[in-house]
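does this look right to u?? iron/sulfur cluster version
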Amino acid sequence: MHKNITCIACPRGCLLTVSGEAEDLIISGNECRKGIEYGRQEILEPLRMLTTTVRTTHPVYTRLPVRLSREVPLEQIPEFMKVINQVCVSRTCIPGDVMAVNLLESEVDLIATGELYYEKG
Amino acid sequence: MFFYIDRWYKPGYYNLSGNTTSLVVNVYQEDFISMKGQMKRQLRAVRRSLRNKKLKFVQVVQKGNSVHLSGTADRWEQKVNAGFAAAHKGFKGVVNDIDVRGVVDTEMRLPAVQDSLLEGRSFDAVIVGGGVIGCAVARELSRQNITIALLEKESDLAMQASGRNDGMIHPGFAASPGTLKASYNVRGNRMYTKLAEELGFELKRPGSIILFKSPLMNLLKPIFRRRCRKNGVDGNYRGLSAEEVRKMEPYVTESQKGGFFLPSAGIVSPFRVTIALAENAAQNGAEIFLNTAVTSMDVKNGRISRIQTNRGSLQCGVLINAAGIWGDKLSEMAGDRFFSLHGRKGTDAILDIECSFYQNHILGMPSILGSKKNHSKGGGLVPCVEGNILIGPTSEEVPGREDYSTDSENFRKLLGQLSINQELKPVHIINYYSGVRAASWEEDFIIEPSGKISNLILAAAIQSPGLASAPAIGEDVARMAVESLRVAGVKVIKKKNFNPRRKAIPAVKDLSPEERSALIRKDPAYGEILCRCEEVSRGEIRDALVSSVPASTVDGIKRRVRAGAGRCHGGFCLSRVIMVMAEELGIPITNITRKGGSSRILLHETKENVSDETGI
Amino acid sequence: MKQEYDVVVIGAGPAGLAAAVAASDKGATVCLAEREERMGGILKQCIHDGFGLIRFKEKLTGPEYAWRYENMVKERPVDFLSRTFLTTMKPENGGFDLSFVNPEKGVFSVYAGSLVMAMGCRERTDRQIFLHGERPSGIFTAGQAQDFINLKGYMPGHKCVILGSGDIGLIMARRLTLEGAEVQGVYEIGSEPSGLTRNIVQCLEDYNIPLQLETTVTEIHGYDRLEGVTICRVDKNKIPRRETAVRIDCDCLILSVGLIPENDILKPLSVKMDPVTKGPVVDQNLETSFPGIFSCGNALHVNDLVDYVSESGHLAGERAALYGKKKIQVKRRITLNTAGNIQYAVPQNLTLPAKGTVPLFFRPLRSMGKGVAILKQGERIILKKNLNWLKPSEMNRLPIDLSLIDPDGMTPVFSLENREGVHA
Ligand SMILES: Cc1cc2nc3c(=O)[nH]c(=O)nc-3n(C[C@H](O)[C@H](O)[C@H](O)COP(=O)(O)OP(=O)(O)OC[C@H]3O[C@@H](n4cnc5c(N)ncnc54)[C@H](O)[C@@H]3O)c2cc1C
Ligand SMILES: Cc1cc2nc3c(=O)[nH]c(=O)nc-3n(C[C@H](O)[C@H](O)[C@H](O)COP(=O)(O)OP(=O)(O)OC[C@H]3O[C@@H](n4cnc5c(N)ncnc54)[C@H](O)[C@@H]3O)c2cc1C
Ligand code: SF4
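got this back:
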């Protein structure tokens, strides 16, 4: 395996070259130690936060911003999008509220990042 | 009415040109023979002129009273040169049918709508074209007790030349004495004062200064004065020394060597004038049909008997051709093709309102005065009614009759004009656009009843100063239309209840704090600012959606109440404006278009293809 | 009856919220006026994460960051006027007479002892970069697209081209992709991306979206709705090379070509502006050349980190509160000159004598590997700090101790030089 990736652990942005196999990766191009860790993680399992929106039944604010409770593997993002797109909110909530639990059975929850207010009744 | 024929006919109805029948009035044989000799001389003159211009490929024939050019040119420029070469040789019109290699004739853009809204309807007067001319005619005609329809193919009024010009009410100096341009311009200019007051649109008369590039041009001052006198220009027009100019315009270029001041020059918002005219016409009973294009006409016995549109066919007592750049095609539909039009594109740019401080008058600095080569005026800097300064227009012969694109080359030329004012820089530009002038080869307006079709009135080839002339043209064309109706036996009388006044949408920004508060108390929508650059309220936008000629597009809103016309170019307000539009019109937001047709702004909702919902 | 406040803050984005909090904490009576219904400013639509690493030591999303500040405002006696638009301001009795308009009260006046301008910025449009061609719908600024997708829930296009590599454009490339659109590519006229590397990686590389540098859009196609764009490589002078023109079919063009601080309301007062930042010239208290008017956040200069925006808001709010109490002693206002590889530095002025430490924000003109920032007064070095890997796209912050500056000394000069013997 041979891959070029940009290190984003600091503003320098070294172009890392990663080669070798999972157990003993060879990383070059890094100007510091942080680059090695970053390169390893990026090759083995790049993790990303997913932020998006869900539909609401609110007459004015028809979308609510949400995020996942933790970073997930990059390759799973499309699947997460699919399930999140099916969510529709119809209750008052504030940032931090859990809007759905255990998405894709991965113990990741869906968290509201915005506020939505419904009149009572 | 008087027209040429190429054979001798006894008075009566004859079939002169294929399917149309024309009335021949008394033309005596002797006149005809001398006319025939004259025509031959004229044809020779055309051929000579073409030869001189090295345009030998052009074939020339005389048809009726006009000269027709054909052949194949390599470049557009050759076609243009040929057209001009044939003009003013004694024919009534030049029809330029020269093909240009690699250039396809532009087809008229037609509305997408197909229905039968107009099927079977009949109006005393049908006006084709919702530009400033058509709308001015409509308003004048609406003084009479007749039924009026104005047909406009675009999604709104003033979408073509009338919405894409400088908004200048020329003083009437530029046009040569004796032309229709000169007389209509001066008359129109004068009429604007009352019109603005009646229709509630803004008119300012800052006056214009023609700046001199060289001290020698000061010698022209007496000639300028004489021309003003001949054309009947209003106001205390006068020559200015370089110092006087600088006093009036402190930021003017150092290179000016004096100038000539024309105080009657005015400015308006051209689309607001057009819309105001139409709204007033509509208040007085005229019906306005947008998205309605005339596609052909049936002609019987020298009369238009039926008009075909994309919304059904209708009948008219009289038809007014105010179709702008398509005026020649419209005349052709009626079988009276004696002139042809060619597009001359002009590009304008608008500067940020913060520049308003730097200029008071309209400024132009022609490079070569009276140059025959450049058929449209040189352009310059125009302070608009809203305060922004406008630069332009450029002038370029183009094949595309509805080609409103801009390009970097012309734009660079345009920027050259910024040098007239020392403070203006390209960074101040917030918008730019192009318009296409409807020029005939003779370079004058065609305002007359058709010589061939008894119920057709022409208001064609109305290029600059068409906006300035519009009120006067409207008056005359309406009179011709009434005359034509009377001849046909329609009893036309003045309406008693004609209301010349229109209630404009309040520009809340310009109201006094007390008036503004009172308005907001009555209707809080006037207190909700949606467009931050131009300070336009929700109330004004709503008004534009329900006026007598309502806006139905985002551009329509912008043109009526200026939401999105400011420096952020709709960056902030577009989403708010379209939300309000959807809400007020009761349609999905995805149906809102920028300018009609398929110019939708948003395509669909996010997450739309999701079917089974998980409720939370 | 005219309401009176010690401090009036215009704009309830992160800058204005912070200013209101800080002014209130200094004991001032505070009014916070916002044109929109909700607080939060542009953060409401920035649903991505990465906000607040400095301020809250957490990676928050825009709305979460705004929410925290909103609550801080709500906990304090701050009068919040929503849907309220500032139309004019006039100096009056050492303070300001402000004229507002809103649907509830119509036109009304408020007296402000001092003013904090936190109106944020606006985006450059297709007209400001002189795009030519036809004029269809389907051309959006990145912020507009962000608003449509994130707040309104509508798609502005299916096949998108992004012009400019500003952060918002990069973020929108990812957002559009996640919502099912196809992003054909991001084209940048410069030779370096203008957005953060992190966004290049996580917004473009993650989704295989090509980024092409030294390339621009030269023509727009489509009469009603956008049908395509012509792209061209550019030469060193950024002039398109026509022979490289390629047409790309797309129905949506998104522009991420820069932000301009919003300060039009200051024009009539002839407040001195910085031609580079396009914001007002301020001193270390973020006071403009017009006494009593303070500026912060993106209205002052365009920030890439909201944490810095809040910091400037705090500072402006605090100093605006003190201004009302006439606690700022002015002896001399001098310029802080810049030299070397500096695009701009804020504050541009210093009011002396002064104590305490204030942040100096600056951007380099060009990328720089190993640099050294030096603040000098005459030959006297006040501050010298080694800085690495500087980029114009990333703002830098340096605290300076004002007590080290001699109020009667020469004009201080702030410069950024290559570290001796080291080349980038
Ligand atoms: C760049 C530029 C600057 C100018 N500056 C000035 C100026 O400062 N002052 C001035 O006085 N003049 C100026 N002019 C000239 C002025 O704009 C025109 O003379 C004037 O607008 C012409 O009005 P109109 O109604 O004849 O044409 P238009 O406004 O073009 O109206 C014709 C209408 O007819 C419609 N139409 C065409 N065919 C059909 C059909 N078959 N069925 C239905 N509808 C049809 C078209 O859609 C169009 O809306 C300028 C022109 C340009 C291009
Ligand atoms: C699209 C975008 C994406 C960004 N992404 C990131 C990111 O990922 N990470 C990060 O750290 N930073 C990011 N930033 C930077 C940072 O978040 C912003 O710079 C910050 O939000 C600016 O805050 P502000 O308060 O100065 O302006 P804004 O948030 O724009 O607030 C200004 C407020 O003033 C109001 N206002 C304006 N004029 C008036 C008036 N006349 N009367 C009343 N109210 C008025 C406006 O309505 C608005 O609410 C982003 C910025 C933008 C524009
Ligand atoms: S390797 Fe080290 S120096 Fe290079 S970008 Fe990564 S963290 Fe920065």
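Chain B has a mean pLDDT of 90. idk if thats expected tbh
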